[in-house]
Amino acid sequence: MAVAPPHLFLPNMPPPPTTSAVATTSPPPPPLTQDELKRMAAHRAVEYVKSGMVLGLGTGSTAVHAIRRIGDLLREGKLTGVVGIPTSKMTEEQATEAGIPLSDLESHPSVDLAIDGADEVDPQLNLVKGRGGSLLREKMIEGACETFVVIVDESKLVDHIGGTGLALPVEVIPFCCNFTVERLRELFPDSGCRAELRRVGEKQVPFVTDNGNYIVNLYFERDFGDLNEASDRILRIPGVVEHGMFLGMATTLIVAGKLGVTVKEKSELAG
Ligand SMILES: O=C(CO)[C@H](O)[C@H](O)COP(=O)(O)O
């Protein structure tokens, strides 16, 4: 049976021997980087991929590890016949580079499995996504899949989504976007809500999504209450296309942390 490396305890593996002289004289290995943790979570998720599946391919620095891993397995002949549906133009490029055959939701309206990262995950597997700006395509594709595996390093775990002071992204159409920003700002007066159009570059031009839209970042000083109610209120504003709360969509959560990788299934949640 494999033995866990000294810096990492993995479930189902015996701990490393502790009595050797090496253990007392060697310097401890450096801690795993955040990127190594992301890769561990992604590789664990790819174990869910089977030949012939239609796959939703996520966007971001965690999802790219899954894309590369799937590409490697295809090249090695360990996976065959998979088709990927990319959730962004960036993912499309990465998947093409990895050699994954691509399709879209019109040709493949039901997706077997999607793998994607997240910005925040609460204990009920509700997510904030879209700080990378791809929330609309992600929500369309991940909403069409049977199994949605979320992969994160442990820094993404929160008690309440939207309660970290970091952005909850909302995709809006460019037409009179400042009007929409104001409407969003007024929406949660008791929660200290701040709404800002996302801007990029030296000239601070609006960030443009793959769909030609803009992103408004919402920041909350205090809890904004029921998530489904907040979702409905945001979506009722004309000019809003979609928001980055993914409620009840994730079926599996894979978290990589300093103590190893853990897997949580939605079906195991109480209530
Ligand atoms: O929702 C997303 C992009 O729209 C990403 O999944 C999310 O931002 C997490 O990204 P990363 O894995 O780079 O931390």
Automatic annotation (TrEMBL):
> A Pfam family matched by this chain, by name?
Rib_5-P_isom_A
| Enzyme Commission (EC) number | 5.3.1.6
Catalysed reaction(s) here are:
aldehydo-D-ribose 5-phosphate = D-ribulose 5-phosphate
| InterPro entries for this protein | NagB/RpiA_transferase-like (IPR037171), Ribose-5P_isomerase (IPR050262), Ribose5P_isomerase_typA_subgr (IPR020672), Ribose5P_isomerase_type_A (IPR004788)
* Superkingdom as given in the UniProt entry: Eukaryota
The UniProt entry, under NCBIfam families, shows:
PRK00702.1, rpiA
Check the record and name the HAMAP family matching this protein.
Answer: Rib_5P_isom_A
- Name of the protein described by the UniProt record: ribose-5-phosphate isomerase
